Structures
1.
Amino acid sequence: MASQVLVAANRGPLSYALSDDRTLSARRGGGGLVSGLSAALAEQPGALWICAALSDADREAVRRDVSEPGVRMLDIDPTMYDDAYNGIANSVLWFTHHHLYDVPREPVFDAEFRRRWASYVAYNEAFTRALAEEAAQGARVLVQDYHLALVPGQLRQLRPDLRIAHFTHTPWASREFLDMLPEDVRSQLVWGMLGADVVGFHTWMWAANFASGATIEDERGIAQASFPKDGRCGVDHRRSAGDGRYGVKRVTSVDVFALGVDADELRALAHRPEVDAKLAELRAEVAGRRTIARVDRTELSKNILRGLLAYRELLAVHPEWRGEVVHLASAYPSRQDLKVYRDYTAAVSELAAEINAEFGTKDWQPVLVSVKDDFARSLAVYRMADVALVNPVRDGMNLVAKEIPVVSEAGCAVVLSTGAGAYEELREDALTVNPYDVSATAEALHAALSMPAAERAERTKRLAAAATALPPAAWFTAQLAALEA
Ligand code: G6P
């Protein structure tokens, strides 16, 4: 049966595991996006999620034609996948959108880059072909993220009947960073995105960056962003016919859908017996001290090192906190195929060890680092933390900043970076910091620890209300509705 609603994302809602006797088992992925999208998709008859096979077990499942209803995994050649995912999506596009380059050395756009870019194009084409095959006439297609930026343009060519949306979960690069890309690559990226009827972002900042970067005139056509008075922004564009003439004008609307948290679901998850057990363990470890918590993938953009430096400065400048506070830092491994991520992970452990050596005593360890991706433990941390440190240099949204206030028991003061997308919605009741300013972050931690309990509880209530404004199912339906408009 052809599908009416399709989602395309690099990561799918499930992954396979292969046991010793070569039996395959499917496991539902965790995380707000996957559960939110899965719930919303379940209400759409015949909906389909197209994703890449990420592991050998996933590929084996595709080969054996084992499939779960509503999911189609693409078996993409592993070398091509590695070039597209690690080589381009995570090393070039992620770095560009998060402004992460160490500019004296990077980026370098050479022959090797060109080889990888060709893989990225082919990987996008694999998704495009699958979507074109599976979509019913006039179906709505929701393409996710920077991995698949070329899909809307490719799909528009194959299937002009489809309604196409693209949503970016990361920031969008400022014009200056976008302009670092080779001109033809930048053009492919922009025109790829403009194949969509609607492009969505978490905040107006990212949407405005996109619109400004999409004002372009080159051999592919002319595009011009407009910021009309009703607040909706769009890009008018005409493709070049190649003979000096242009095709019909199309409009891509640029919209904001600020993804939030499903409060009931998250609270239910946070009160399972296994979370209660982790909470009891943590309470014993912390032994009545105050806690500053962070929970992240070990990700360059999360600014974990400056977070640790700020904690060190807090202990140095406000010695009254020595022995009185514990920093619970969950930094679970991510993208370890990339050397720069492995080095960063090692640097985080080293700095935490230095702080422990400098200030620790025989009955107090200042930093407890946890590198296991343990959602139950994270939820226990959310419930008990006095202070949350969310200090990314740049982040599309940052759902941790939204999840903590929702499940916090006694109220949690959130120290929040101005670089997080969540800043737009949470800034009133968070303690906001410039992510590069370590001393200001140390002072914000001090202020957060010193905040009277009643004020903390009041702020947490308001943060939770803001955080739950657009839960995943509503976020998804809002995009479907924008495609109808
Ligand atoms: C960000 C991206 C997602 C990605 C996630 C985890 O949130 O926007 O698309 O899935 O990071 O990264 P990974 O590379 O492990 O999928």
2.
Amino acid sequence: MCGIVGYIGERQAVDVLVNGLKRLEYRGYDSAGLSIISDSNLITYKKQGKVADLETIIEGKNHRSNIGIAHTRWATHGAPSDVNAHPHRDNSGRISIVHNGIIENYGLLKKALIKRGYSFHTETDTEVLAVLIGAFYEQTKNLELSVRKALSEVVGTFGLLVLSLDEPDRIIAARRGSPMVLGIGDGEYIIASDATAIIQYTKQVIYLSDNEMAIVSKDNFATKTIDNIETNNQIHQIEFDLEELEKGGFEHFMLKEIHEQPYTIQNAYKGRLIADKGNVKLGGLRNVADKLRNAKRIIFTACGTSWHSALVGEYMLEQLAGVPVEVEYASEFRYRNPVLYPDDIVFAISQSGETADTLAAVYEAKQKGCTVLGIVNVVGSSIARETEAGIYIHAGPEIGVASTKAFTSQVMVLALVALYLGRMKNLSQLDGKRIASEIIQLPDKINQILARCEDIKQIAKKYIYAKNILYLGRGYNFPVALEGALKLKEISYIHAEGYPAAEMKHGPIALIDENMPVVFIATKDEIYHKIISNIEEVRARGGKVIAIATEGDTQIKQFANDVFYIPETLPMLTPILSVVPLQLLAYFFAKELGRPIDQPRNLAKSVTVE
Ligand code: G6P
């Protein structure tokens, strides 16, 4: 949550900062603001709303400045408003900070500071940190030392940038629990919550670690721990290109990302699947192969959409590798006392690699001595770095807040893990080859679905009156039902629930009437006839049925009001196909309703707070 960016160099800082905020806006869009130093003045602009609203108040100001910090907010402490927008200043007005994260003990710190005569103008936890840094600066007259002292008193998480009129040639950055990337340009530096704000200027980056600071001036930088021990960081190369951050002719990022899936799932298996041998090579797991083979149990932990792909993974691993699997919401996992054994393998699944709950679950499992692995999209992210080994899904930057291509790529990678482990155990080469040959047909099959995107649009138009929609599926399609419902909720604000189809009769059936459409994911598999019975139960009660069915299934037309066909594949791979029409359905509902599809209200893409 929240995006931060800082710049120091030769360019006009305002331009770099505003560009950076636009790239980071998916992280939060309650307010935006920036501070620059121009002609020995510390100038701040901030505004409730989106970056475009901030632009309206800085337009035409033409401040000359080569240093500044900026922020786009997802509100936690204090309502979204102009006054609560970042940056925040200390009491002298000479220090300005932007912050991503939460200062948990801000109440106590604030009380103590008020007692000492300091005053506050906002409801935010961040202002407390700004005032605290300022209070230390009065004593030390040294910005770096003041930041270090303040941070040693803080409980919570932060990605922090500090700018001061008294040391106008540097930006101080620090992180604990919130991401921070330092871009190293030619005589310039860009520091941001993620690489998307940096790539326009340089591909060379350093990923700061937890409890690390960077002191950045125009010509050099130093990194050290918050306790003042020097650190050495490897320089990494950003792997994606600038074009991947553009809409590429699509109206929304979400639609673009849905259409990228034939290519992104290929990226997930390319170089890993050895189709002619029915095998998988996973370089990232090489060092833990024996532990995986001998694991008595595998635990997946994740949040949101990633939790749904974990459910698909559970079914796959149990089917192909015969290993017991549990799937845990990271937020629950970390707060109970999970019973973990040293020979358990814990996989954390996360698109962003920064979700606070998932990261905390990683720490919890490590603490208990488990082997903790990651399935992550964002290279160099916290979860990627904190796990012992792992697999990148290589889906490229996902900007739309509602996750789409990350889901299918996660499921693809989980299929590879299941095949990998299955082949280490009892899965025959013949079965391995059959699965592999189905995998490589998936991109083409997704293309066939996308080519009929207009049919889904018509279905959305027909049911646009609905206030509630139920999504039902069984087996591998149960997690898809959950994901379809989540997509609809997130971007159209229509209430939707996903359920295992057979559970419908234990409650949701009471809701069914002619105003409540039911989406059935009813593809051909061994329990197909059971789902047909569930469809009949809905029809008998006047419910309207939209079915996602397998091509060639003519029987289903008698039961469903609308049918959308998807190509046939193995049941374990079906989610990669069946989710696509549901992503499109959510998209077209939201579009018909005029919703802000890429930036739905109240949500943020990267949830770095608990
Ligand atoms: C947020 C996003 C979801 C995402 C979830 C988990 O809620 O809006 O799209 O699925 O976080 O995020 P992660 O980055 O850990 O997969």
